[in-house]
Amino acid sequence: MLHNFFHVYVVKTLHQFFHSILRHLYSYHNYSLYKVGDKIRLPRGPSPREGVVEVWHDMHPVWSRICHRDWDTNDAKVVCRQLGFTRAVETVAVLGADLRYPPPNGTDDSPDTHYWPQTLHCAGTEASLSDCPHGGWNIHNCSKPSESAGVFCNTGDCDFDSHSCGYHQYCKVGSCQGWGRRPPPIPPANSTAGSGQCMATNVSGSAQLVSPFLHSSTRCMEFAYFMHGNATMRLAVRLWVDSLPAEGNALWMMSGKLKDDWHVARIGIGVDKNFQVMFDGEVIDGSDGIVAIDNVTLSDSPCQARKCSDLPVPAHGYVMYDGDAAHYGCWPGYQLLQPSNRTCLGNGNWTGDATVCQGRSEDYVPLIAGVAVSVFLLAAIGGTIYKLHRRQNRHLIAASRRERAEQNEYGRECPRRLRPLEFSRDRITLGRQLGKGQYGVVYKAEAWQIAGSRTCTNVAVKQLILSSSDAYMTFHKELLLMEGLEQHPNVVSLLGCCTREEPFYLILEFVSGGSLQSLLRKSQPDEDPGGAGTELTNSELTKFAMDVARGMAYLASKKIIHRDLASRNVLVTDDRVSKVSDFGMSRRGEEYERTTEVPLPVRWMAPESLFEGKYTSRSDVWSFGVLLWEIVMFGKTPYPGMTNHEVRDRIKDGYRMDRPRNCEDHM
Of 29-43, 259-273, 414-428, which range is least confident? Predict the structure, then answer.
């Protein structure tokens, strides 16, 4: 853990160091942005909104810098307002504006004399610095360059018509797709009448656009977005902090084929520090497309009214609001100590408790000391126990060895061969719950750069919720089994796992259409008398059966017995492709005999499994036959009108369900 701590610290420090050097070498231009008559400017910044504060002194006539002493946010607000901006994002004072914004090599257009009152105390509401209370002009004793005052201004609104508002591309190594200001007809329409420009990119892959710094008081961000082309495109909005992308922290995402329509998105946020956002455009399928944004506006008020007040923002973290739902997140290097989701109730209260973002590298010294003491005590206790029991029954020793062997295979430590699948949970953002089983809960989630993807991917995360040995054994058996499978179009794929700390995650392919059982039941003809496009055709029903048969044939070729094949465990894509899922009860081998008591899917079980506890690939064939009955009967429960006990008795007597009337011969 100390290695990880030092690695994160060194990498971050080096990044900041080289970032500073690059800013000095390449980014600075001699801007002189000031309004005639206002006598103020910000020279030497990377953009017209950032730099050293200089004012015009009429008596001498020179440009003069302001001493950093007593320089605060209220003074910075007045400077930004005087320059035409709406807010001061950052004051640059104690660290030294001249150190941050050095002059170009070989030049120095800033004066040596610092004229301005030392008693400058603006309230923040003045129209210009000359309106602030002060004791008149004076020569400052700020002799060091590092004692100059600076500011970083920003505006809450940007239509991209006259400039890019400080937005810039984020170029990954070896790749830099082009965001830039584009006039019509690319894209062919704009979000507001009379607006002639927007930020757009022709993407054949992905392109990232980063905003200037936004103030921590921002509570709502609104923007218009546009997607044009025949390809399916995706636009995601992510948080940046400390000039680094906070991977996995997706605030908002939209994908699809939106054609030529502009849409408006609103993101409610609460952040504990000044931040940036990244717009991430991507073409998912197809060769090219256009993604555009326009009219970005920021507000210090909530995006929408709710009965609950805003939640406190955790230190080193953020809160994202989606209607009456709130989702917590932490900056890289920190983790949540409580559940990440809360809901606003009608009585004005939030469900759940407040959360804390704790650094992963905190308190390592006492932890190491505690571990050392624990190891010493355990060694002493273990030695004593060994001396007391060394001559006990050899059968107990053998049993203990078998138990340890079982724990080594299915225990809490991830087996070595699975380590390439290990994925950082910092790059996962959990979403809504999809389902819940005996040992775990399944969530829809987003994973950043998983399975070779360069951006964010929708995934399904199965989270282990129990800490018993049976739960861990079941989890690792499913993980080990799926690890040996190659990608198959009719079997849900394993993408990764998180087993270095609890709760354990199994990261699976996300199948957007839900379960086959749900689709069948929604399409039952008697539930839609008008037949308004919900009833499935016979060819579609047959395709479901064929897809499942192909998936099960592949599993049989890998000597895997599923043991729980049913329509509820088959997922369907938006393109109506069926995929076999849920391997929690699956086992590897040509034959398996049940030795533990677990809840059983009685209505789908073959007689030899039901009465003798034996499973083979032929048992899965029986379950497939019951699945065919479900498909033809649009998801109805097999053996209708019977209890599980009655089903067992009738099957034992040789009973078989009748062929449904609407079942065609080929089925």
Answer: 29-43
Q: Is the pLDDT of residue 278 over 60?
A: yes
- Tokens 């080289």 correspond to 18
Please state, rounded to an integer, the average pLDDT across all residues of the chain. 72
Cβ proximity of 97 and 149 under 8 Å: yes
Query: Which residues have CB under 8 Å from 373's CB, separation 6+?
Result: none
DSSP readout, 113-176?
Answer: --BS-TT----S--SSGGGS------B----SGGGB-EEEEE-SEE-SSS--TT-EEEPBTTB-
Question: Percentage of the chain with pLDDT > 90?
Answer: 11
In angstroms, the first-to-last Cα distance of the chain is 58
Catalytic residue among 342, 564, 603, 620: 564
Please say whether the beta carbons of 586 and 481 come within 8 A: yes
User: Above 70 in pLDDT, residue 174?
Assistant: no
Q: Is the pLDDT of residue 496 over 50?
A: yes
- What phi, psi does 28 have (nearest 5°)? -100, 135
294, 569, 620, 648: which is the annotated catalytic residue? 569
Q: Is there a contact between 495 and 450 (Cβ–Cβ < 8 Å)?
A: yes
- Region 162-187: mean pLDDT is 69
Instruction: Look at residue 166 in the predicted model and tell me its pLDDT.
Output: 74
pLDDT at residue 532 is higher than 50: no
Q: Where are any strands of DSSP class E within 353-509?
A: 357-359, 428-436, 440-448, 456-464, 494-498, 505-509
CA 628, 631, 632, 633 dihedral sign is positive
Reply yes or no on whether the pLDDT at 508 is more than 80.
yes
SS (H, E, C) 546-564: HHHHHHHHHHHHCCEECCC
Residue 477 marked as a ligand binder = no
185 prior amide bond cis, ω within 30: yes
In which region does residue 371 sit, left (phi positive, over 0), alpha (psi from -120 to 50) or beta (all else)? alpha
Q: Is 582 a catalytic residue?
A: yes
Q: For residue 568, indicate whether it is catalytic.
A: yes
CA angle 624, 630, 636 (to 5 degrees): 150
Q: Higher-confidence residue: 216 or 466?
A: 216
* Alpha helix segments (H runs only) across 23-131: 73-82, 97-100
Q: Using the CB atoms, write b or e for 533-566: b if 16+ within 10 Å.
A: eeebeeeebeebbebbbebbebbbeeebbbbbbb
Rounded to an integer, what distance in angstroms lies between the CA atom of residue 309 and that of residue 329?
Answer: 18
Over 90: is that where the pLDDT of 110 sits? no
Question: From the centroid of its chain, how far is CA 433?
Answer: 15
Catalytic pick among 75, 98, 294, 582: 582
pLDDT for res 366: 45
pLDDT of residue 568: 92
Query: Which residue is it, tokens 């199948």?
Result: 511
Q: Which two tokens stand for residue 199?
A: 């930020």
Does the structure show a pLDDT above 80 at 575?
yes
* Model confidence, pTM: 0.42
| Residue whose C-alpha is closest to residue 551's, from 542, 562, 540, 541 | 562
